[in-house]
Write a structure and sequence with these properties.
The protein has 165 residues and is an alpha+beta fold. The chain has one domain (6-158). The chain has 2 helices and 10 strands. The strands form 4 sheets. It has a 3-stranded antiparallel beta sheet with strand order 1-2-10, with no helix packed on it. Strands 5-6-7 form a 3-stranded antiparallel beta sheet, with no helix packed on it. The N and C termini lie far apart (81 Å).
């Protein structure tokens, strides 16, 4: 009998786990087409950076736009098309790649930020009712989860313009 390499066995196990979870390799449902984010009425397209935000979140301010990131890592934050407003459906294999942005036990909702209680009892931050996650392979400068089926990076928001005097 021929021995299988560790990498082959691992790939088979991950494929089986993804298939049995009802989600693809990145936690997206099979057949969901990647590409331009699906814009719906609930897609976060505007926000007020002057509103308070949780300690687990950092505001990254740049000349043209600003965005929220995980604090203190500065990792990009993502939301999923599969999550209904205020509820996470990313569990099991999905959480191997997509890590929920957890809220501490004493956290309170602030501004556009609310908290949902996951089925495992953990508390997760939401932005405008979208449960938020980080991607396991991201770095502060490289967002590898961008383009994964059904997953979208929390957008950068344009800086407000000021009228000339």
């Amino acid at each position: 009998m021929r021995a299988l390499s560790f990498a082959t066995v691992l790939a088979l196990l991950l494929g089986l786990a993804a298939a049995t979870s009802g989600r693809g390799a990145y936690g997206a449902p099979p057949g969901n087409v990647a590409g331009t984010p699906k814009i719906t009425a609930s897609t976060p397209i505007t926000a007020n950076k002057d509103l308070p935000y949780p300690a687990e979140v950092a505001l990254i301010d740049a000349p043209a736009a600003w965005s929220y990131r995980q604090n203190p890592t500065r990792l990009p934050l993502y939301y999923s098309d599969d999550d209904p407003p205020g509820k996470s459906v990313c569990f099991g294999v999905c959480n191997w790649s997509w890590i929920p942005l957890l809220a501490p036990p004493d956290a309170k909702p602030v501004g556009d930020w609310t908290i949902l209680v996951r089925t495992d009892g953990k508390r997760q931050w939401t932005f405008q009712r979208h449960p938020l996650y980080t991607h396991i392979h991201d770095t502060p400068d490289v967002a590898l989860g961008t383009g994964a089926q059904g997953w979208h990076i929390l957008p950068q928001f344009p800086q407000p313009t000021t009228a000339a005097p």
